UniProtKB/TrEMBL annotation:
Gene source species: Nocardioides albus
Annotated spans, Disordered: 298-319
DUF4232 domain boundaries: 329-463
Name of this protein: DUF4232 domain-containing protein
Keyword set, alphabetical order: Membrane, Transmembrane, Transmembrane helix
Tree of life domain: Bacteria
Transmembrane region(s): 12-35
Length: 469
């Protein structure tokens, strides 16, 4: 009897195992089906009429209907299809700007209603057209099949840039804004960069320019004087590249050099003596000459420095009275605290506060010195502290009793993906010669650290009138 009972139990166990295996196989099949439901694209050429051949300056037209299968988001939900049309128009190489504009707008005006009939399921806003002049690499893209005027303007500008010396022009009309045409990506020989920039400015077309080792980028209209400076800097001995992202960033010149090499100082002196700047903007331009193996020199192009500025008050309160007779604040007069932090896309900001705890007004005129500490109390290595703005200097702020001054810390977001030693405390010297105060950076209900890591670059402002605490 015992043996028969044992046999039955074994049979039961075997049955359970078999059922479990079958369930696992079934679940695996379901998962495989779900994972296999990727997007799928199908395309088919559209047979167009010959009407486009009547447009002067058009060499060829190709239209392709594209269908994208989008899997249902939930299991069991039916897939859906999105349809669009891609049009490629090749123009003759010898057209002038106005001729290219006329040909492009005319052929697109003819094709749009025909495509609507031949591909009725295609959404106009997802369809696109591109115009190509193959001999010089001109390509103008249009998101949607309108507006025709923007396409015409883009084609006219692209051909004008080619005629000025551009070897390739690429721009997308879908990036047009009401207040600014779409930016063009332009390549040219270094000798032609200034001429190309001049035409772009005349056409009111923003451009990114690349020519040899010279690279100029701007979301505003190009300044030919700035472009000429970048090109000239790129031709200096040992320079590997010269780059300017106008109007906010400094000119960056990279040289094949190491710390202490004479070439860094030579290029820096040349930039400081450059006499063809400032250009249309009239603004002074900072530069940084950086060695590929270390070393850096900074200054202002042409020796033209900006006027000194001071930190504006925080908040919108009335300015505090300026009392020339107010004594300087002492450390025992100040209560220094961490004032919180904020984050935007790619950038970070935090604040320090120093409250006047004495019985009367006192004056402060300095930038706080800050050291960044990790959870072990060790200072972050290689942190570079920079002025909040290149021309900013401390202002004398008379702090009424009980009020607070504030200072801002700005830095770029740093990756914490591999669990690095983030900053958990700040060691702050509020006034020169004063003792250091260590502050935690955690705030109730908010972050407990700052993503200021080894090698960070932090900009620190002078003390300025703060908000009410």
């Amino acid at each position: 009897m015992a043996m028969r009972g044992s046999s039955r139990r074994r049979e039961l166990v075997v049955g359970i195992v078999i059922v479990g295996i079958l369930l696992l196989v079934a679940i695996g099949c379901v998962i495989a089906v779900v994972l296999d439901r990727d997007d799928e694209t199908e395309s088919a050429s559209l047979e167009l009429s010959d009407e486009w051949r009547s447009v002067a300056g058009v060499r060829d037209v190709v239209a392709v209907e594209e269908s994208l299968r989008i899997p249902g988001e939930d299991f069991g939900e039916q897939d859906r299809w999105e349809h669009s049309v891609r049009i490629e128009v090749t123009l003759e190489d010898d057209l002038t700007g106005p001729e290219a504009a006329e040909a492009g707008t005319e052929v697109l005006g003819l094709l749009t209603p025909e495509i609507a009939l031949k591909a009725p399921e295609a959404a106009a806003d997802r369809s696109r057209a591109s115009f190509i002049v193959s001999s010089t690499g001109i390509q103008v893209g249009s998101g949607g099949l309108v507006p025709l005027d923007a396409v015409g303007d883009a084609l006219a500008d692209a051909v004008a840039l080619r005629d000025a010396g551009a070897t390739s022009v690429s721009l997308s009309v879908s990036e047009e804004r009401s207040d600014r045409p779409a930016k063009a990506d332009v390549r040219a020989t270094k000798d032609a960069l200034v001429a190309v920039a001049t035409v772009a400015r005349t056409s009111r077309r923003p451009v990114d320019l690349l020519g040899g080792e010279a690279w100029y980028r701007s979301n505003e209209l190009p300044d030919p004087v700035e472009v000429g400076l970048v090109a000239a800097a790129s031709e200096r001995p040992s320079v590997t590249s010269a780059q300017l992202s106008a109007p906010f960033d400094p000119l960056i010149v990279l040289v094949e050099a190491a710390e202490g090499d004479r070439v860094i100082a030579d290029v820096s002196r040349w930039l400081a003596a450059y006499d063809a700047y400032p250009g249309a903007s009239g603004k002074p331009l900072a530069f940084s000459v950086e060695g590929t193996r270390g070393g850096k020199a900074e200054g202002w192009v042409g020796g033209v420095t900006p006027p000194q500025t001071t930190m504006t008050p925080f908040g919108s309160g009335d300015p505090w009275p300026a009392d020339p007779g107010a004594p300087s604040c002492r450390m025992e007069d100040l209560e220094v605290t961490f004032g919180g932090q904020d984050a935007a896309a790619g950038s970070r900001q935090a604040w320090l506060r120093a409250r006047n705890t004495s019985g009367g007004a006192c004056a402060i005129e300095s930038v706080p010195a800050v050291e960044f500490l990790n959870a072990d109390g060790a200072a972050q290595a290689g942190v570079s502290v920079e002025p909040y703005e290149p021309s900013m200097v401390p202002a004398r702020v008379v702090v009424p009793a009980g009020e607070s001054v504030m200072a801002a810390l700005d830095w770029q977001a740093m990756s914490t993906a591999n669990d690095p030693d983030v900053t958990t405390e700040l060691r702050v010297v509020a006034i020169p010669g004063g003792p250091a105060v260590t502050l935690g950076v955690g705030v109730p209900g908010g972050p407990s650290d700052l993503d200021i890591l080894d090698g960070a670059e932090v900009r620190i402002s002078p003390w300025a009138q703060g908000t009410a605490h």
